[in-house]
């Protein structure tokens, strides 16, 4: 099918034609009300028998349609029709009710145009095809020239009768062209009259940004809690397997640590997934903090065979809840890195102190061999950097001259 034929009879053109026919159907009640007004005004008893009076009735009905478009559901319904039938991108159309007078005015203009164009195209679609069909078959049926059938007298001539099929086919093509043109105009005007305002676009952008921020936060929580738990459980199970026959007490402690780690992680996972599951109530497990679980975090890490020395020179109970929670995750990530990337049974040094109005956190452990990078740990360190940045602090992570790996974060005590 050529481009010209597709523009007149393709799927898009057909759907827009349907949209116009629906507009004509919606215009019919207003047309009938207009005819009730025009009849007494003109003194006519047969409004439908006069084409000028029909046009006058239609013209009177359109302002009534504009007034009725103030009904709140008008814009959502019209917007849905435009999206489905006019091939207009969804993000260019506002689906909610018109709130301001400007939006209501644009909705009224759109509704009037839809019903105006739709009424004209629908009327032509009802009247023109039968007339065109008569013209097409006119040379084969001479009795169709009977004046009582309403054909123009010009078709009584032989030359006109021979050209009648051409005129009939041309009238159908003209109808398709008018429908396609009106449909294209409505599709072009729809984003202007039914589209979101700059305020709507700003609100949508802010909502998307807020949703993205929530998703990023949940991703960090999942990475930190589940990632740490898997590293810890793997190391604890490995240590228990190696010492199964020689140190039953250590194996018992490792299994208890695995149970404690998995139980706590399932609670944290349920809390995070509760936020992600739309319609579900969020989980009730509180986010861990230094005050609530620092000792448990260190104990579970030691159960995997690592020696952890901790110097806590700050009162966890006195820290703000948000600061304590984020500091816990930073310490957790530092210990997770040590579990994943250092050798067996190494010493991990943890220091938490308050200096110069800032919470100072350091997690340090020996490098494994001559490695100076940690493949696979980038997401966790990026998560730490995001947490620190949101709190207005600073963070560094990397090898030191003493062949250790150090994670060092400084967080302000107050926002």
Automatic annotation (TrEMBL):
<keyword id="KW-0472">Membrane</keyword>
<dbReference type="GO" id="GO:0016301">
    <property type="term" value="F:kinase activity"/>
</dbReference>
<keyword id="KW-0812">Transmembrane</keyword>
<feature type="transmembrane region" description="Helical">
    <location>
        <begin position="109"/>
        <end position="142"/>
    </location>
</feature>
<feature type="domain" description="Histidine kinase/HSP90-like ATPase">
    <location>
        <begin position="326"/>
        <end position="413"/>
    </location>
</feature>
<dbReference type="InterPro" id="IPR011712">
    <property type="entry name" value="Sig_transdc_His_kin_sub3_dim/P"/>
</dbReference>
<keyword id="KW-0418">Kinase</keyword>
<keyword id="KW-0547">Nucleotide-binding</keyword>
<feature type="domain" description="Signal transduction histidine kinase subgroup 3 dimerisation and phosphoacceptor">
    <location>
        <begin position="215"/>
        <end position="280"/>
    </location>
</feature>
<dbReference type="Pfam" id="PF02518">
    <property type="entry name" value="HATPase_c"/>
</dbReference>
<dbReference type="InterPro" id="IPR036890">
    <property type="entry name" value="HATPase_C_sf"/>
</dbReference>
<dbReference type="Pfam" id="PF07730">
    <property type="entry name" value="HisKA_3"/>
</dbReference>
<protein>
    <recommendedName>
        <fullName>histidine kinase</fullName>
        <ecNumber>2.7.13.3</ecNumber>
    </recommendedName>
</protein>
<feature type="transmembrane region" description="Helical">
    <location>
        <begin position="162"/>
        <end position="187"/>
    </location>
</feature>
<keyword id="KW-1133">Transmembrane helix</keyword>
<keyword id="KW-0902">Two-component regulatory system</keyword>
<keyword id="KW-0597">Phosphoprotein</keyword>
<dbReference type="InterPro" id="IPR003594">
    <property type="entry name" value="HATPase_dom"/>
</dbReference>
<feature type="transmembrane region" description="Helical">
    <location>
        <begin position="20"/>
        <end position="41"/>
    </location>
</feature>
<keyword id="KW-0808">Transferase</keyword>
<feature type="transmembrane region" description="Helical">
    <location>
        <begin position="53"/>
        <end position="73"/>
    </location>
</feature>
<dbReference type="InterPro" id="IPR050482">
    <property type="entry name" value="Sensor_HK_TwoCompSys"/>
</dbReference>
<keyword id="KW-0067">ATP-binding</keyword>
